[in-house]
Amino acid sequence: MKALVVDDSQSMRNIVKTGLKSMGVFNQISEAVNGVDALEKIDSEGPFDIILLDWYMPEMEGFDCLVKIRKDPRLNNTKVMMVTTENQQENVIRAVIAGANEYLMKPFTNEMLEEKVRMVLGL
User: Fold this and answer.
1) Helix 10-23 and helix 110-121: axis angle, to 10°?
2) Residue-wise pLDDT tens digits, 29-64
3) What superfamily does domain 2-121 belong to in CATH?
4) DSSP H helical ranges for the chain
């Protein structure tokens, strides 16, 4: 399986990657620093089974990236999980309506990450 971790924080990308690696189901975990970078990685390395997407990033925020992903019919089978500090209920609802499959609030434990990823991917 292939995953894409999108976050402007290198330390957060490392935390998420470590959690995904510990699951033992991903043979490729790629990184992107913002939505623009993510869309480029999707074109060059995708499709991905799951994209873990931060909300607040420079150049293109996670929500805008989510909307673009959901407009691309080639990515219909790609799962998207928001992994963010954004906790305002209206924004959580906006993300789900826009097509997010799951929403994980920072900070989180590896167990919480693994549980949500397994649920979203049906593992």
Assistant:
1) 60
2) 999 999 999 999 999 998 999 999 999 999 999 999
3) Response regulator (3.40.50.2300)
4) 10-23, 35-45, 62-71, 89-98, 110-121
